Amino acid sequence: MLNKRTSSWIKESLGVDAEIHSMKQLHGGISAETHVVMMTVGGKAKEVVIKQYTNESWLLEEPNLARNEMENLKFIRNENGAMPVPIAVDPDGEKTGH
Q1: Could you give the count of Cα atoms lying within 13 Å of 15 in the half-sphere of its Cβ?
Q2: Numbers of helices and strands, H then E, in the chain
């Protein structure tokens, strides 16, 4: 389950009228926790995915991991429009705690 700081950050990233209805953890990752978040934004249903890196030793080796992944997703999105749209990044975990 996402903590309150993370839930607040998601809502702030998507806009004032964003409301979280439910969330589900996706399994299989070894270096991160990944959740699907079902919400309403601007009166429309929306699903977003949040990935939080939790492997502290990996983050010590790759401190820019979240920022680099966001840049890679943006690049891939520009090359192949079939990718999900990157929305926001908390590169150092300051706002979400991860």
Answers
A1: 9
A2: 3, 3
Structure-token pair, residue 98: 């991860």
Structure tokens at 84: 């999900």
C-alpha to C-alpha distance for 98 and 91, rounded to whole angstroms? 9
Where residue 15 falls among pLDDT bands split at 50, 70, 90?
confident
The pLDDT of residue 98 is 67
- Please report where in the chains the tokens 């299989």 appear, as a residue: 28
| H-helix or E-strand spanning residue 35 | strand 32-41
C-alpha radius of gyration, the chain, whole number: 14
Concatenated DSSP letters of 45-60: EEEEEEEEE--HHHHH
SS3 64: coil
